[in-house]
Amino acid sequence: MDLDDLLDDFREGEITKEELKREINLLEISELGDYAKLDTGRKRRAGTPEAILGEGKSPEEFSDIMIDMASNKGVGIGTRVSKDQLLELKNKNEDFELNWYEKASIVELRSEEYRSNRRIGKIGVISAGTADIEVAEEARVTAKLMGAETKRSYDVGVAGIHRLFPELKKQIDDGVEVLIVAAGRDGSLPPVVAGIVEVPVIGVPTSTGYGLGGNGRGALFSMLQSCSLLSVVNIDAGFTAGAFAAKILKSM
Amino acid sequence: MDLDDLLDDFREGEITKEELKREINLLEISELGDYAKLDTGRKRRAGTPEAILGEGKSPEEFSDIMIDMASNKGVGIGTRVSKDQLLELKNKNEDFELNWYEKASIVELRSEEYRSNRRIGKIGVISAGTADIEVAEEARVTAKLMGAETKRSYDVGVAGIHRLFPELKKQIDDGVEVLIVAAGRDGSLPPVVAGIVEVPVIGVPTSTGYGLGGNGRGALFSMLQSCSLLSVVNIDAGFTAGAFAAKILKSM
Amino acid sequence: MDLDDLLDDFREGEITKEELKREINLLEISELGDYAKLDTGRKRRAGTPEAILGEGKSPEEFSDIMIDMASNKGVGIGTRVSKDQLLELKNKNEDFELNWYEKASIVELRSEEYRSNRRIGKIGVISAGTADIEVAEEARVTAKLMGAETKRSYDVGVAGIHRLFPELKKQIDDGVEVLIVAAGRDGSLPPVVAGIVEVPVIGVPTSTGYGLGGNGRGALFSMLQSCSLLSVVNIDAGFTAGAFAAKILKSM
Amino acid sequence: MDLDDLLDDFREGEITKEELKREINLLEISELGDYAKLDTGRKRRAGTPEAILGEGKSPEEFSDIMIDMASNKGVGIGTRVSKDQLLELKNKNEDFELNWYEKASIVELRSEEYRSNRRIGKIGVISAGTADIEVAEEARVTAKLMGAETKRSYDVGVAGIHRLFPELKKQIDDGVEVLIVAAGRDGSLPPVVAGIVEVPVIGVPTSTGYGLGGNGRGALFSMLQSCSLLSVVNIDAGFTAGAFAAKILKSM
Amino acid sequence: MDLDDLLDDFREGEITKEELKREINLLEISELGDYAKLDTGRKRRAGTPEAILGEGKSPEEFSDIMIDMASNKGVGIGTRVSKDQLLELKNKNEDFELNWYEKASIVELRSEEYRSNRRIGKIGVISAGTADIEVAEEARVTAKLMGAETKRSYDVGVAGIHRLFPELKKQIDDGVEVLIVAAGRDGSLPPVVAGIVEVPVIGVPTSTGYGLGGNGRGALFSMLQSCSLLSVVNIDAGFTAGAFAAKILKSM
Amino acid sequence: MDLDDLLDDFREGEITKEELKREINLLEISELGDYAKLDTGRKRRAGTPEAILGEGKSPEEFSDIMIDMASNKGVGIGTRVSKDQLLELKNKNEDFELNWYEKASIVELRSEEYRSNRRIGKIGVISAGTADIEVAEEARVTAKLMGAETKRSYDVGVAGIHRLFPELKKQIDDGVEVLIVAAGRDGSLPPVVAGIVEVPVIGVPTSTGYGLGGNGRGALFSMLQSCSLLSVVNIDAGFTAGAFAAKILKSM
Amino acid sequence: MDLDDLLDDFREGEITKEELKREINLLEISELGDYAKLDTGRKRRAGTPEAILGEGKSPEEFSDIMIDMASNKGVGIGTRVSKDQLLELKNKNEDFELNWYEKASIVELRSEEYRSNRRIGKIGVISAGTADIEVAEEARVTAKLMGAETKRSYDVGVAGIHRLFPELKKQIDDGVEVLIVAAGRDGSLPPVVAGIVEVPVIGVPTSTGYGLGGNGRGALFSMLQSCSLLSVVNIDAGFTAGAFAAKILKSM
Amino acid sequence: MDLDDLLDDFREGEITKEELKREINLLEISELGDYAKLDTGRKRRAGTPEAILGEGKSPEEFSDIMIDMASNKGVGIGTRVSKDQLLELKNKNEDFELNWYEKASIVELRSEEYRSNRRIGKIGVISAGTADIEVAEEARVTAKLMGAETKRSYDVGVAGIHRLFPELKKQIDDGVEVLIVAAGRDGSLPPVVAGIVEVPVIGVPTSTGYGLGGNGRGALFSMLQSCSLLSVVNIDAGFTAGAFAAKILKSM
Question: Domain PurE spans what residues (chains A, B, C, D, E, F, G, H) (predicted)?
Answer without folding.
Answer: 121-252
